Amino acid sequence: MRIGVFICECGTNIAATVMTQKVADAALALRDVYHSESIQYTCSDPGQRTVMAAVQKHNLDRVVIAACSPRMHETTFRRTVAKAGVNPFMMEMVNIREHCSWIHDDTDEATEKAIDLMAMGVAKVREEVPLFTSKVPVTSEVLVIGGGVAGIQAALDIADAGIPVTLVEREPTLGGNMARLDKTFPTLDCSSCILTPRMVEVKHNQDIRLIVNAEVEAVRGYIGNFEADIRKKATCVDEEKCTGCYICVEKCPSKAPDEFNAGVGESKAISIPLPQAVPLVASLRKEHCRRYIKGKCGVCEKVCPADAIDYEQEDRIFTDKFGAIVVATGYELFDWKTAYPNLGGGHYPDVITAMQYERMLSASGPTEGHIRRPSDGAEPRNIVFISCVGSRDESIGRPFCCNVGCMYLAKQAILTKEHIPDSQSYIFYMDMRAVGKDYEQFYRRAQRDAGAIYLRGRVGKIYPLDGKLMVMGADTLSGQQLEVAADLVVLATGFTASDGAAELAQRLNIPYDQFDFLSESHPKLRPVETTTGGIFLAGTCQGPKDIPDTVAQASAAAAKVIGLVSRDEMETSPMVAEVNHMRCIGCWKCIEVCPYKAIEKQKLRDGRQVAIIIESLCQGCGICNVACPPSVVSLRGYTDNQLISEVVEVLR
Amino acid sequence: MADLVTTIKQTLKDVELVLGWVRDPATGVAAPARFHTEEEAEAAVFDSTCVHNLAVHLPRLKGRRLGIVAKGCDARSVVELIIEHEAEREDLKVIGVGCGSILDVKKIWRRFGYGVEIDDRGDSLELGGERGPREDFLARKCHGCLEADPDIYDLFVGESAGGPAGEISGGREEPHPLSAMLEDLAPAERRAFWREQFSRCIRCYACREVCPMCFCRDICIMQTQVPHWAGGEVNARESEMIQHIRVSHLAGRCTGCGECERACPVGIPLMLLMDEQNRAIEDMFGYRAGDSLRARPPMQTFSIEKDLWGDEE
Amino acid sequence: MKFIAAKKIPDLLGLLARDARVWAPLVPEDSADTLLFLPWEPGAEVDLERFTQVSPKKLVMPGSEPLFSFSYSMAVDCERLEIGDARGVPGAGGASDADGAGEAPGAATVLFGARACDARSLTVLDALFGLEPGEAYNDPLYRARRAALTVVTLACTSCDAACFCSSWAEGPASTEGSDLILYPVEGGYLARGVSDRGEALLVLDIWEESEQPLPELAETDRVPFGTLNTKLLEIFSDMDFWERATERCVSCGYCTYACPTCYCFNIFDEMRGSRDGERCRSWDACMFYLYTLETSGHNPRPTIAHRYRNRIGHKFSYYPENQGTTLCTGCGRCIRGCPVGLDIRDVLRGAGER
Amino acid sequence: MSTIPREGIKASEPLRPEPATVLDVITETPNIKSLRLAFDDESLMQSFSFLQGQVGQLSVPGAGEATFAIASPPSQREYFQFSVMKTGVVTTAIHELRAGDRVAVRAPMGNTFPTDDWKGRNIVVIGGGIGMAPLRSLFMYLEDHRDDYGGLQLIYGARTPKDVCYLDDCRQWEAGSDIDFVTSVDT
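Output (structure tokens, whole complex):
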């Protein structure tokens, strides 16, 4: 065994605090170390050539490079040693920058620590064995879950690269929350005007298969080779036949709540959510349908000119293979009623959410763009907007910012002035957050042009008085108690993860945070990846964000996906779990804990049942290692004995 | 014990063998036995010397149809073994016996000589003709008895003990006799205490082999080179290490049957460690091994939970 | 005959401890029901009534001991290996005093309060490890410890149901392996020297003269060995017998580790860091699966029954065949301490009746 | 049994191995390597002698010690050879060794072949796989004493052609006119 040790100076990043030559000298005293040196920039081309030359000159078979984080250059140096003829996995990186030079001041002590870290690396590499990557084929088709603006953008970008996409949407139409908005800040362009063409584009793109009224039920497999079961729910309408003529909707005798319009107005049991729906087909909600509640009706079937109604329709399950998955399941608005009894808890009809207000503002909404008080249909004069309802509120366990409330209230104040010129808007806010491009100007415009009065403070209470709503709050800037008589109160409710986000995450084996938003692999360096290879995030499923950020992330996810599936095959890491079959006791703890379903039972020739790792599924997370009572599952490159050697070395 | 014998015979119609006890003619106390035939079953007994936890044999007999005579405490081990797939419920006929507390025979022998005549009268004890307070010779686990009657059984024999034996003997959940002493010690003194205790260890692994939940059996990492968690030397340092390994491997598994401490030939108070950990597991996860067939052991559960990976920044 | 009053035993131990480490049956702290051979210190109360749980063989064959140390170093572009002293470095491996390895091999040691079965077991081990120079195999570490050991034996006037040393001719009266024997009598102990070394101890002025007669010694259970050695060979393949005999066995190593004549050991290297290490030897037990596990994964003794058959066969058949002596002295420890109540005599008698 | 020489192991220290250096490592098959060794102590190396078929204990201190047949003939005085299949901890460490590395050896040990009793007779040596190691020593001894024996036949088999050890020797045995060499593989 002949080990070479290279200490990187990283310019002064390391050398200013760690005496690299001293570390190199100390390496020479270690067993089997035949060469060591300090290099100014090991990752540079001359640095790498120095390493390769030393490997060849001293006939080295293992290499330790003490430099920066392996996240930075492990791949670089694996390639370097491989070029010099050493198995790339016989190279061990030791982090003496982030773990040492950057966090210490005392040169002597930092050098001492760097020596210890280097010696641990040598101890570990001594126990290393050559590892080899293998290749698996990649399925090119991509699954996008969620048909909001994020899913639409990702699907279109991926399809533009000529890659087939399946877009699954839970609702009857594409569009998501953005389709419900009237205008968008800070440009005030019409939401439908910019979104509808994209929805239609999806419909007509020959590389996109759109499945609405559908959910992903199960996902198996691994990066490049997923298999998903997609359940298409029965809607009693044959989508192929339906022409979207609205006759059934008009004749339907069963009333139903209008979810698309956030409860403003009413819908029918068979309905089309909006005129621009894609696909433009009706769907029937059995829970509201007279035929299913009372057992007799059949009007829609009778009136349908296209013969598209099929009461016998059943759920169907598609199973398909996908190379990558983009999760774009969006958000829902916080249900404020139980959390805020002081705001009326939903008992006052004239306290509405900003989304309900948005639907009133919309020309295609139930009020056709007229602002009307729900209680009496009168046009309000004084309108109070309250921000941060269900955001930034530790007391109800929701500490995070919704990212868009400040801006959409500014937008609604401006639109209010346009709709009712003699109206007066009051906005209770906590802090003004206008961090995007042109946002600050937009907020000023609400103040200046729309005359909105901004009051910094929380609202304590709302109570009705003489047909008005009295909004009590504190103005923390003036220190005064305030009371505003409002005709209408609009609440800027915060974001919550979409319904079922956690369950979906569990089905996909991806992590999620305490608020059920899905977690990215690294907040800065891997913002669209998840910890599961091949599954990417786009939009508000990952956390609250506005439309520009959503679209940017969706395109980023699309770029990652295109990079992945445009290859025919991909290399898999050999640093996965391994079972010593001779000693496996068949207790199956590993199978129970494996989050990737990467372990199976196998019967050996002698009849014993043992666990085997499906290497292409294993992500090398190591959970099976710790669950294995006799420790016969080990993680290649991180075996128990390697870790023990490191510990023994540092305790030496 | 006509009832027990009949029940075992009946069970044998359905299973290959039944694990139970016979009386050792030389000492008069119970010893573990396997009954394969009705004729053998005639010798079956159950009395207050049936201290052994027969569940220890289940993992080695996995896959065969068995009967097992179980006290309340032993049944807890059976439950935990089923949960951990080391025994199959459908392959098992549990013959429950109501237990009114058992004697630490080894303690009696060590004090009065091996084979001394033990006359247990239920409320008092005569040893080699001398009367001794029965309390002094109860198995320690009886003091913290959780179930005198088995929680799971297919057939029940004898009288129900009507509650935990600890209640019968006047105490419940009693801490280890040494725990109060140990709590008062400073960390360094505690260390010295354990060093002293483990300096006696001869690494015979009786603690491991009598433990029903040490089901790795022959493939135990305390003795392997790969991985090399414990050195091969017999000394206090290594013995402490292997016991730490054993204790942590039994996290969420130990049902507190006390067999390890009973089997230890050099008198190391192993249940002190186990008790401590069992309490910690109960506090942390609300889990007590052997409570329920439906429970999921915390150490064998992986679920993607909120904030599992946390934020790296 | 020489006599010592019971109350003067501590004084005797004090005299012995002047020149040697004295090991005697003592109750460890916090463990009243345990009795072990432990290093005696003034004030410690020796228990000469009960039996110890582990034999004193560790005084000649410690639970583990270093054989030698080694160290690697780097010279100019080449590696060097140095092998240390064959005598090892006692204690360097963290061995504790209670293992008996704390003393350097060759340090004067007294074993006080051994029973005849224990003392006799030393002669069994002598035959194997070689006491005299020039024997086919001489184990330097064993020899050094053995040569420095003085054995003061306590003759048994009573026994318990596990004892069976009377199975051999001299039984509790055996003087083999002892240097000095104490006989319990009214008020104290009569003493008789067996070896020169034992006689030399009788010169100490602590002894009184006594006219008391030697007490009657215990009469233990007897196992009829007779032709057991050939019988065991006959039933070697009778797996049914061995399986039934070991049904309650859980395969722990207590019986072998407590046994005064079991001598199997394992040799392995322990590293202290990556450069320095020691080759060590420690007790091994034939009841362990790993004892015969081969690298290929094959184990010629895969089940407890196979392993127990070997244990019995080795003690009572093959070893007597080869060496002329049974690997057992009837001390009964394996019976007293077995966690599952397995009695080796039942198996031997069962084999005899087969 | 004839006297077995024990030169190499000090009678007073039977447990202590002697340091030796790896002179050469020969890769015989994908999982078998031969090591040629010499004791570091030159006078010991000069007096070191063994009989065909005897074994030695080879240590890689730190990994452990294991028994291997000496695969070189007694007449080879420059070095002695072990052939080792990689299976466990010690053999893996042995496979890591390269020329110049240090090991430790206790040898010779064990019994020999009763070659004296075979004089004047025809000898057939049959071996397979790594089992050939002691037989190589034996066969080369027989070749060294060719005149003492009648016909010499060597039958050597391995699982597959890639598992055949001692290819160079095989070629020489094959070419040798006065020995009969037969090889076979299982598959």
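Chain A has five domains: 3-126, 142-233+315-330+500-565, 247-303, 335-493, 573-636.
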